Amino acid sequence: MTESQNSRTLSNSSDVVVLGAGPAGLVLGILLHTAGIDSVILERASRSHVQTRARAGFLAPNTVRILERHGLADGLHRHGSRHGTCEFRTEDGRLRLDYGALGPGEPHHVYPQQKLVTDLLAHYLDLGGRIHFGTEALVVQDADGARPSVTTREPDGSPARWTARYVAGCDGRYGAARRSLPPGAVRHHHDHGVTWLGLLAESPPSLDAVGYAIHDHGFAGHMARTADVTRYYLQWQRGTPADAWPEQRIWDELDVRMRAEDHGPLRRGRLLERGVFDLTCDVIEPLRHGSLFLAGDAASLLAPAAAKGANLAVLEAELLAEALTDALARGDTAGLDGYSDRCLAHIWRAQEFTGWMTRLLHAVPGPEQDAGSFFHAALQRSRLASLRTSRIHQDWFAENYVGV
Ligand code: FAD
């Protein structure tokens, strides 16, 4: 179904209005549609934009199970790959952990987020799902009442109003759902004090593992995406723009931090994308305000050090779909009542492990070499030593690394 066909069947009233067509919004939209719930997705960006936005790549076993359960995993099984090894590179040498064989014994699946989003969107449209691109939610109103509404800016710039029984805020960190929370809503915020330069390189992976390099210059990371594209990260001076260094300098610095001289060269290629992001995180509590529910990045933002965000988004979408279906199809609101607490338990666990990973990968909590830097570096070495020598610690790591 095309976008113009969609707009001919436009109805500004439905049981559920879903804001945002990322992993959370699309999984939710598909599950609601499959359950026969009248719903619509409003997406600020264009279809081509959401299908090409490169972000996550590592999908946890539970995410894959959810996608399989609903017939949404064909693409990732056909084109994705399995990944179960990570490698820490330090001045003491290499520590390789076959985490896919440790703990619960499950690897990640690697499948670029934009490909997953493309698959989900195609599936949703094939089912006859309604989606409106270029439609920006501005504010959610009357969430306390029986008929909340969403005011939007439509593609032609005109305002419109969408009414529903429930609104699902899956519109990310800067979306309208967060902006519409009542004054009593709490946002717990934490800054890990570290900034990364995220890079997408047109080059095959350089190692058969997730690479985490711990170096005096700062952290560097390597993560496979596809056979031709690899993600790299460099710990970066906060406030420095992404284009401050030429490509040659970036590759040279990646070589230094990844210790290419000792462990083999990196496969260089054109840098397709650069982005700077501070490793900050937050949690909104509760995730329900009347008839407005938050899921995915709108509910909680995680630093990408442990690759949890997209996985939580899919998990929360499934929980919310079940709860909304129970409420709308059967009049049973227990799932909606428990939604926030259920999700928050997963979110805080993921935040805890992400914080642990962030401290493992960065010796100094911030760009400044402060008086505590020796102390933090010693703690970091001790954490790695424990991971190197303790099987129990390795199992704990594997369980948390692949879990949500
Ligand atoms: P999003 O994907 O952000 O989707 C929200 C949608 O809402 C967007 O399409 C947006 O256009 C739309 N929107 C926004 N505002 C409005 C509005 N006002 N009205 C209507 N629509 C709106 N996670 C992992 O699990 N594994 C990884 O390996 C991983 N790697 C990452 C690497 C990077 C560089 C980054 C930046 C993130 C990474 N993440 C990873 C995190 C992951 O990408 C996010 O957690 C995930 O995209 C969250 O999905 P979502 O559906 O909640 O939000």
Any descriptors?
26% strand; 20 strands; 404 residues; disordered N terminus; 6-stranded mixed beta sheet; globular; alpha+beta; FAD/NAD(P)-binding domain; binds flavin-adenine dinucleotide
Q: What do these coordinates show?
A:
The protein is α+β, with helices and mostly antiparallel strands and 404 residues long. It has a domain at 2-81 and 112-189 and 281-355: FAD/NAD(P)-binding domain, CATH 3.50.50.60. It is built from 13 helices and 20 strands. The chain has helices at 3-8, 23-34, 47-52, 61-69, 74-79, 113-126, 176-179, 247-257, 260-263, 309-330, 334-361, 373-389, 391-402, and strands spanning 16-19, 39-42, 58-59, 81-83, 86-90, 93-97, 108-110, 130-132, 136-141, 149-153, 159-163, 166-169, 186-202, 210-213, 220-224, 230-235, 270-285, 288-289, 292-294, 300-301. The strands form four sheets. The chain has an eight-stranded mixed beta sheet with strand order 6-5-14-15-16-13-17-20, with helices on both faces. Strands 8-2-1-12-19-18 form a six-stranded mixed beta sheet. A three-stranded antiparallel beta sheet has the order 3-7-4. Helix 2 (23-34) packs parallel to helix 6 (113-126). The relative contact order is 0.17. Flavin-adenine dinucleotide binds next to helix 2, strand 9 and helix 10.
